[in-house]
Design brief:
The protein has 210 residues and is mainly α. The protein has 8 helices and no strands.
Length: 210
């Protein structure tokens, strides 16, 4: 399959390969189960192996990331404008959404600035930004900055590693595993802290001495 894609990129003239990369880069914000980083990494790898300008590949994957994030942002605004939607039926779900909105209202810019470095949570951040109706220019600014930095890292590593796709993929797979483990550890820590505070608050006060 790799050889076929390489041949297609080599033989295809014009903007079509860059448009395909942009579409693939942005699709993970709409369909989070898609391997967006692998697509971006493969795009950088293609630039190194086929001689296509890396700057054009870099622009394409960043444009795709920004457009995809805006789709997720628009979805968040759509949800927030429909309080009667099925997602709000559960009391627990409403409380969780309210907590996310509160946290994002306070630290939304920071979350968007680091979103590209956190696998699996990227689209969620932009949905949350839409739900609190964060200004679009802030979404583009902080989300775009994150994409620029992350994709520069990917393109730079691809340029250094060269045409060794297996080594390049293994490197980023190790990063993904480490980052995911860190996220899980942090979430478990927050959950344990919440449970401990709730347990302390739920204890009955001792009766006064007679």
């Amino acid at each position: 399959m790799l050889d076929e894609v390489l041949r297609w990129v080599e033989d295809t003239e014009g903007p079509l390969p860059y448009a395909a990369l942009a579409l693939a880069s942005g699709s993970e914000y709409v369909l989070p189960f898609l391997p967006g980083d692998t697509v971006t990494l493969f795009g950088a790898f293609l630039g190194v192996t086929t001689g296509r300008p890396l700057i054009l590949i870099y622009v394409a994957i960043n444009v795709g990331a920004i457009l995809g994030s805006l789709v997720a942002y628009a979805f968040g605004r759509w949800i927030a404008g429909r309080p009667g939607a099925p997602v709000f039926e559960s009391k627990r779900t409403r409380k969780a959404i309210a907590l996310v909105q509160e946290r994002f209202a306070r630290h939304g810019a920071m979350y968007l600035a680091i979103n590209r470095f956190l696998p699996a949570l990227r689209a969620v951040f932009f949905v949350a930004a839409g739900m609190i109706r964060m200004p679009v220019w802030e979404v583009v600014l902080w989300g775009g900055l994150s994409a620029l930095l992350w994709n520069a890292l990917i393109v730079g590593v691809a340029w250094v590693v060269g045409d060794n796709w297996a080594a390049l993929q293994a490197l980023f797979e190790r990063y993904t595993v480490a980052a995911t483990a860190l996220i899980v550890a942090v979430l478990l820590g927050f959950a344990a802290r919440w449970a401990w505070r709730r347990g302390r608050g739920g204890r009955a006060a001792p009766p006064p001495d007679a």
